[in-house]
Amino acid sequence: ARETVNVEATYKSALPGIEGPTDMTLTEGYTDAVQTEAYQLTGTPLPQVTIDDDLDGRITWDDTEQKLTIAPGLSQGNYTVILTASNGLSPDATLTFHLTVQGPPSINGDADMVLIQGYPEARTNAYTFTGIPSPEISFSASDPKITWDSQSNEIVIAPDLDQGNYTAALTAINGLNPDAALTFHLTVKGPPSISGDRDLTMVQGYPVARTSAYTFAGLPAPKICFSASDPLISWDSQTNEIVIAPGLGQGNYTVILIASNGLSPDATLTFHLTVQGPPSISGDTALTLTQGYRATKTNAFTFSGIPVPEISFSASDPKLSWDSQTNKIIIASGLSQGKYTATLTVANGLNPDAILTFSLTVKPGSSTGPADPTDPTDPIDPTDPGEPEDPTDPGDPIDPSDPADPGGSTEPTDPGEFNKTSTPTHPSETSEETDAPPMSGLIKALIIGGIIVLIFAMVFVAIKYHGKKKE
């Protein structure tokens, strides 16, 4: 007969356990999946393993190989996964796994800034640096007034920078290529300015001339406006020079340059051009007076020339003098009949000097006054035919050459009359002429009285003669 034996098996239970890798480092950009070393699981029964965060399936548990698998594509960062081993007995066993994905550094923050000249202290926003391992930061700037604040990760711009463009460079290094670099551009704007020639002197007859090149400053770059007092003065925008064409006459000319960029004030520069030349004179060159004239003057003379000329005067007689207040030649009374000269010379250091010779002629005067052609006191009636005269009578009492005869009288020259021959500076300006002094009243009275007495005597003789004939 068959004998049946009952055997009772007894299992010894044990708590779960897990041992294995706790960290791993990868470099950003890895392309293949990576697995950890296998983990050792203990416990009776054998525990099952779960993970708390699979990072969207990028970190998974391989139950067959008892390994963690990290899929490609994780970016820089530190990742933590907790593995839990459980078999129904408490407590469960846990293990923390740290994954580091390292990579080259990067910088994020302000790349440019605009300030207006005269600004107070300014700062950028804080910069952000990434990279595993943590990068070291280096800073450089084009001006010492631009500095780095490592506590706040900000660029600091001290006041008083001039207009211009400035740069600062930030570099982050952590041993992985490439290094990170950021260039910060600072623009300090301001109103425009102009520098360059302000005056120029040339001599008449010059060839084409140019100033030195002008320099314009200002941010934004200014627009240039040009105006000149003569069209022969122009602006060369290619060379930033003022061009003076030949042919300008003596004189003072101006140019105005204005630079504007929208920031006040605009910049203005006035350029003064002086064209020098030899002197010239214009005015009376001749004058005729009659002896006995009163004191007189020429028209005013006009002088030109740059620099302003000096005037010298000489005359052949001291009665001819120069009035520097009115620029006239003064002729005092009392010159006798004759010809006189005066010479004006003007000089300003440029050849030739200008010379004008003034000629004065003093003509002789007359001392005989005019006869009265008619006498209202004549008692002879002009309508009375009178007595027939004897043609053989040799004695006609009325002499046709007698001063009382209008046909025989002549108009004497007034001793105060004179003529001028001149070249006036201004057409509207005339010479100063004065009437000659009138004849003495006593002389005129004597002449007229003598004529009247003579007429009465002739009438008396005629009456007496006719009376005798009638007897």
Tell me what the structure shows.
This protein has one helix at 441-470; strands at 14-19, 23-27, 34-35, 40-44, 48-51, 59-62, 67-70, 77-86, 93-108, 112-116, 122-123, 128-132, 136-141, 146-149, 154-157, 164-173, 180-195, 199-203, 209-210, 215-219, 223-228, 233-236, 241-244, 251-260, 267-282, 286-290, 296-297, 302-306, 310-315, 320-323, 328-331, 338-347, 354-363, 419-421. Helix content is 6%, strand content 44%. The protein is mainly β and 471 residues long. It contains one helix and 34 strands. The model is unreliable at 367-440 (pLDDT under 50). It is rod-shaped and about 230 Å long. Strands 2, 5, 8, 9 and 12 form a five-stranded mixed β-sheet that branches. The longest helix is centred in the last third of the chain and has 30 residues, at 441-470.
Summarize the main sheet. 5 strands, mixed
Instruction: Count all strands and give the number.
Output: 34
The fraction of residues assigned to DSSP E strands is 35-45%
What is the alpha-carbon Rg in Å? 63 Å
Average of pLDDT:
84
Unreliable stretches covering 5 or more consecutive residues: 367-440
Which percent bin holds the helix content? under 10%
User: How far from one another are the termini?
Assistant: 248 Å
| Helix count from the secondary structure assignment | 1
